[in-house]
Amino acid sequence: MFDFQIPIVKFCSENLKSGRKEWVLTREKVREALEEYGCFVALYDTVSMDVSSNMFHSLKQLFDVPLERKIQNVSEKPYHGYFGQNPLMPIHESMGIEHPILPTNIHSFTNLMWPSHGNRPFCENVTLYAKLVSELDERVKSMVFESYGVGKVLKTHMESTKYLMRMIKYRVPKEKEMNLGAFPHTDKSFLTILHQNEVNGLQIKTRDNKWLQYHPPSSSSTSSFIVMAGDAFFAWSNGRIYSPPHRVLVSANKERYSVGLFSFNDGIIQIPKELVDDKHPQQFNPFDHQDYLRFYTTERGQNSPCAIKAYCGVGNSLVDTDSRSTLLLH
């Protein structure tokens, strides 16, 4: 393993206006980074250092809540609720807010954690943060879709998008305790946007199977984010975009906090016909994103070298290509 500088892309007022030269240059840089590395660092000045600081202060407050309240964070969807107290990942604890761009969802979560009096600053911090980061999510997708010549389908795609915010704490490992914060995995999302405090630990696997340590840019006064493609983006792009395996190993003597905004889609994801040609034969059938998430929890999903290929790869019996719908897996 060696240190590595992930491509850095600056998102500012000059390059966020579609059609401008700066937009086009940024658009191509984003697509190339996702194809080669599956991720890039976004320097996003719309999220100020104050907004970032307030968000991490809110995370610390959240994980100080008694365990009996945290475990009430439940969901019918896999990986959307509380996770913790796991002997295989003893230092990891996380919670989720479904579709946090709806303030009512944040209020409901807040009242669950602080039932007697609520927590107005937490609500305000998370609401603002979710709004700004979801705008980055849409801009990144807009650039990639436009770069591939399929910008016309962005509106429909975004209308079916649902977000999950996962808030994560990695406590300091005890003596002789495993420092594994997250097993190697690819995200099952379409796109993931990660933000961390000053404690490192994220490692990313390249296409040539090398583990690389991520270090945020130290010289930037702007909030930095890791933008990472998930399995659904990999399939949607007909294999052009890389969905990188990644893990978290924590060796610092300080708690690590991170927050991720994951985008998922309701209904069937179609592979654009523009991304299928003689050089790029169709690799994936249309698939139900939420059903894929359920499939991943099954024994076959867990044991497959590439779960998305096992689920909807061309020639795979799990997907009914005639009806363009997936077989029931739940």
Largest beta sheet, briefly?
A: 7 strands, mixed
The CATH architecture of the largest domain comes to: Sandwich
Count of discrete structural domains? 2
The shape is: globular
| CATH level-4 homologous superfamily of the largest domain | B-lactam Antibiotic, Isopenicillin N Synthase, Chain
Name of the top-level CATH class of the largest domain: Mainly Beta
Proportion in β-strands: 15-25%
Question: Structural class from helices and strands?
Answer: alpha+beta
Which fold does the CATH topology of the largest domain refer to?
Jelly Rolls
What is the spatial order of strands in the main beta sheet?
A: 2-3-10-7-12-5-4
Gap between N and C termini: 39 Å
How is this fold's topology laid out?
Elements: E1 2-3, E2 8-11, H1 21-36, E3 39-44, H2 49-63, H3 67-70, E4 92-98, H4 103-113, H5 120-147, H6 154-159, E5 161-170, E6 180-185, E7 191-196, E8 202-205, E9 211-213, E10 224-229, H7 231-236, E11 246-249, E12 256-265, E13 268-269, E14 287-288, H8 289-296, H9 299-303, H10 307-312, E15 319-320, E16 325-326
Parallel strand pairs: 1-9, 2-3
Antiparallel strand pairs: 3-10, 4-5, 5-12, 6-11, 7-10, 7-12, 8-9, 8-11, 13-14, 15-16
Helix pairs in contact: 1-5, 2-5, 4-5
Structure write-up:
With 330 residues, the protein is α+β, with helices and mostly antiparallel strands. 32% of the residues lie in helices and 23% in strands. Strands 2-3-10-7-12-5-4 form a 7-stranded mixed β-sheet. Strands 1-9-8-11-6 form a 5-stranded mixed β-sheet, with no helix packed on it. Helix 2 (49-63) crosses helix 5 (120-147) and helix 4 packs across helix 5. The relative contact order is 0.15. The model is unreliable at 321-330 (pLDDT under 50).
